[in-house]
Structure formats: structure tokens, C-alpha cells
């Protein structure tokens, strides 16, 4: 009864109930919309650009007013003098041009950074989905093995009662059944955890069906000769190159910002003396005189940062190439290992079939036949482990390059 109850619960969990299916585009869209780091990065990106736009704007305009009054002259006539000016604080054209160039570079750099973070989030979600699928396959294998052990245990129990099986052998069968059941339950727990992580990543509420993404499957299909191009055009290198470019612009701008802005104003000067009144147009210009070493130090600062970014670019490029070569070498070995696992599975399947025939003709014992079955099931699990191991290394390669290499249908 307990076995039937667990079977019913898992049937509901693994898809005998209706599942949730989505297209690959919807999968990626949901990951982007529900990734907290992406949400925060986009907000920081937009707010930083607004700050920079604010720094590019003119200074605050203001009205300056000065009033003087008193008695002057021998006749002690009352005199009033007032000057009212509208003051503007524009940036100089060449400074504005360099700031616009820097803004354009920063915008592109921030967009590249966001795209890279999005790609990394999609790579992680892809690996999570593959892990979820593989764990489901493992569950089915463990469930099948548990059923086989239960069936053989019943046979052994009948033979024990008939006296044709020793108590020790029967106990071994029972232990094998318990181990298979525990392995199945452990896998069931891992599926629950993986599905919860997948639901959170996709922004879905609690769901009892199987999650399926169309056109997203395990694939060995990228071309080794494309890796050099991936390294050369890596977003990591593009971001560093843009950073170096921005530092160069800022170094140039720091010299020009000695005269980054000035104040100019125009207004009216009114003089009233007794019954006499005089109005004069007034123009005022204030130009800064940068008698300071501040801007020279700022220029050195940006030149140092530019030099560091260029050096980091060279080191990163070399490291990317080495990492890619290492991961590709591992993938080649793991691909060969998976092919051997396929041969091993086929061989153990044939051995199990022959064992079944031999057992039915009473040429081998039940215990020996059971060992063939168990060996075949273990080979299926090892093949899935090898597949997941390959996916893990491929994920590391994709994260190192900052690109999604494969996302096609299963062509195992």
C-alpha cells in the first residue's frame, strides 16, 4: 500500500497531471523578467545614466539683484541705484562635446554589461532546466529498478517459503529493494528542490505538473573552429575596451574642464536721483581662472585607469583563450566518455536479456539474473551522470566566453 501511495504522489508530480509547456523565447523572457540581479542592474544602469545626463546639463540659472540708496550731493537728493541681471551658466561647447562622447561610450558599456549579465542568467537557467530533466530521467530509472527489486523480492519470498532460497539470499534481496526505494525517494526530493528553483527563476507560482521548454534540449553541436572567434569577440573584452576608451575621453576632458563653464548675464541698471531717472543696459561675464593643480591630477588619474584597463584587456584575452582550450579539451574527453557509456549500456542490456533467457530456462540463479538487471540500471544512471557532467563543463565554457553555444533539440 505504501508503494502505491508513493507511486501515485510521484505520478501527480512528474506529469501524469497536465504539465506546463512554453516556447524557448518565453523561457528566456521569463528568466530576464524575474532575475533580481538583472532587475537591480537595469535600475542602476538607468539611474547612473540619468546622473551623467544631469552632470552634462548647464548650471543653475539665477537672477542677481543689487539695490543701493541714499542721499548724495549738496542738495541731499535721495538717490536709488538698482541692478538686475539674469545669469546663465552654460558649459563650453568643446566640453559638452567630450561629455557627450563619454556619455555615448558609457551607455554602450553599460548595455554590454547588462547583456552579459542576462546571458549569464540564461546560461544558469539552461543548466538548471537540464538538471531538472536529467533528475526526472533518473527518477524513472530508480522507480523501474525499485519495481524490479520488489517483483524479485516477492518471488524470493515465495521460494523462501518453499525452501528453495536461503534466508541469507532472501535478506540480500530485501536489502537491495530498500536501497532502490531509498534512492528513488532521494531523487524525488531533489526533483522537488530543482523544480522549486526553476519555478522561482521563471516567476511561476506553485505548480504540480512537469515543466517543459520546447526546442531546448541537450546538444553537442558547436564547432571547435568557432571558439577563436568567440574569444576575439567576447563581451568581457568589449566591456574592457569600452572602459579604456572612456578613461581616455575623461583624461582629455579633464584638461578641457579647466574652463568647463562660465557665467554670463544681462540686465538693466536703473539710477533714480530726485526727479531724474537713468536706465542702462548691463552685461556681465565671469570666466574662471584655474590656478590649481586639480585638473592635472585628474588627468593622471584617468590615464592610470586607462593603462590598467588596457593591460587587463590583454591578460583577460589570454586567460579566456586558455580557459576555452581547457574546457574544450575536457568536453572532447567527456564526449568520448559518453559514447563509451552508450556502448556500455547497450552491452549490459544485451547481457541482461541473455540472463533473462538463461534464468527462464533455469540455467542461472535468480540472484545472478538480478545482478545483470542491477548492472544495466547502474549503467543507465552513469550515462545520465556523464551527460550532466558534460553539461556542467559546457556551462563553464559558456560562462567563460559570455555566450550561449548550444540550445537546440536533443540530438544525443
Proportion in β-strands: 5-15%
* Major sheet details: 4 strands, antiparallel
How many DSSP E strands? 6
Distance between the termini: 38 Å
Considering DSSP H and I runs of 4 or more, what fraction of the residues is helical?
55-70%
Please state the CA-atom Rg, rounded to the nearest Å.
Answer: 38 Å
Low-confidence stretches: 1-17
Secondary-structure-based class equals alpha+beta
SSE order, one letter for each helix or strand? HEHHEEHHEHHEEHH
Annotation field: number of helices: 9
Mean pLDDT level: 83
Concise overview:
The chain has 412 residues and is an alpha+beta fold. It has 9 helices and 6 strands, in the order αβααββααβααββαα.
Structural account:
The longest helix is centred in the N-terminal third of the chain and has 70 residues, at 93-162. A hairpin with a 4-residue loop joins strand 2 and strand 3. The protein has helices at 2-13, 24-33, 36-56, 93-162, 167-202, 227-232, 235-256, 294-360, 366-401, and strands spanning 20-22, 59-72, 77-89, 211-213, 263-273, 276-286. The two termini are 38 Å apart. Helix 3 packs antiparallel against helix 4 (93-162) and helix 7 runs antiparallel to helix 8 (294-360). The model is unreliable at 1-17 (pLDDT under 50). The protein is elongated, with a radius of gyration of 38 Å. Helices cover 68% and strands 13% of the residues. The chain has a four-stranded antiparallel sheet, with no helix packed on it. Strands 1-4 form a two-stranded parallel sheet. 18% of the residues are buried. By secondary structure, the chain is of the alpha+beta class.
Amino acid at each position: 500500500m505504501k508503494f502505491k501511495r508513493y507511486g501515485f504522489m510521484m505520478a501527480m508530480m512528474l506529469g501524469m497531471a497536465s504539465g506546463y509547456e512554453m516556447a524557448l523565447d518565453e523561457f528566456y523572457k521569463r528568466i530576464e523578467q524575474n532575475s533580481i540581479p538583472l532587475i537591480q542592474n537595469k535600475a542602476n544602469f538607468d539611474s547612473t545614466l540619468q546622473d551623467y545626463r544631469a552632470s552634462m546639463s548647464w548650471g543653475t540659472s539665477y537672477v542677481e539683484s543689487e539695490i543701493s540708496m541714499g542721499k548724495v550731493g549738496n542738495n541731499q537728493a535721495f538717490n536709488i541705484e538698482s541692478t538686475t541681471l539674469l545669469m546663465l551658466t552654460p558649459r563650453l561647447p568643446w566640453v559638452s562635446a567630450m561629455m557627450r562622447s563619454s556619455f555615448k561610450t558609457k551607455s554602450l558599456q553599460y548595455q554590454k554589461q547588462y547583456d552579459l549579465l542576462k546571458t549569464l542568467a540564461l546560461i544558469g537557467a539552461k543548466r538548471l532546466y537540464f538538471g531538472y530533466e536529467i533528475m526526472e530521467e533518473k527518477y524513472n530509472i530508480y522507480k523501474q529498478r525499485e519495481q524490479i527489486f520488489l517483483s524479485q523480492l516477492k518471488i524470493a519470498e515465495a521460494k523462501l517459503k518453499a525452501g528453495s532460497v536461503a534466508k541469507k539470499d532472501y535478506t540480500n534481496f530485501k536489502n537491495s529493494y530498500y536501497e532502490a526505494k531509498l534512492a528513488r525517494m532521494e531523487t524525488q526530493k531533489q526533483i522537488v528542490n530543482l523544480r522549486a528553483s526553476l519555478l522561482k527563476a521563471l516567476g511561476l507560482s506553485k505548480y504540480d505538473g512537469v515543466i517543459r521548454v520546447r526546442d531546448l534540449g541537450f546538444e553537442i553541436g558547436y564547432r571547435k573552429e568557432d571558439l577563436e572567434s568567440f574569444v576575439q569577440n567576447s563581451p568581457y573584452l568589449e566591456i574592457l575596451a569600452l572602459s579604456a576608451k572612456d578613461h581616455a575621453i575623461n583624461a582629455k576632458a579633464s584638461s578641457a574642464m579647466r574652463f568647463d563653464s562660465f557665467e554670463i548675464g544681462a540686465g538693466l541698471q536703473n539710477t533714480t536721483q530726485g526727479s531724474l531717472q537713468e536706465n542702462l543696459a548691463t552685461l556681465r561675464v565671469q570666466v574662471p581662472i584655474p590656478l590649481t593643480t586639480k585638473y592635472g591630477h585628474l588627468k593622471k588619474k584617468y590615464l592610470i585607469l586607462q593603462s590598467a584597463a588596457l593591460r587587463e584587456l590583454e591578460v583577460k584575452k589570454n586567460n579566456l583563450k586558455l580557459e576555452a582550450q581547457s574546457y574544450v579539451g575536457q568536453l572532447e574527453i567527456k564526449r568520448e566518455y559518453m559514447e563509451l557509456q552508450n556502448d556500455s549500456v547497450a552491452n549490459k542490456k544485451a547481457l541482461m536479456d541473455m540472463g533473462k533467457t538463461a534464468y527462464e530456462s533455469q540455467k542461472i540463479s535468480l540472484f545472478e539474473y538480478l545482478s545483470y538487471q542491477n548492472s544495466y540500471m547502474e549503467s543507465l544512471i552513469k550515462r545520465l551522470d556523464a551527460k550532466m557532467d558534460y553539461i556542467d563543463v559546457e556551462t563553464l565554457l559558456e560562462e567563460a566566453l559570455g555566450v550561449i553555444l548550444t540550445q537546440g533539440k536533443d540530438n544525443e
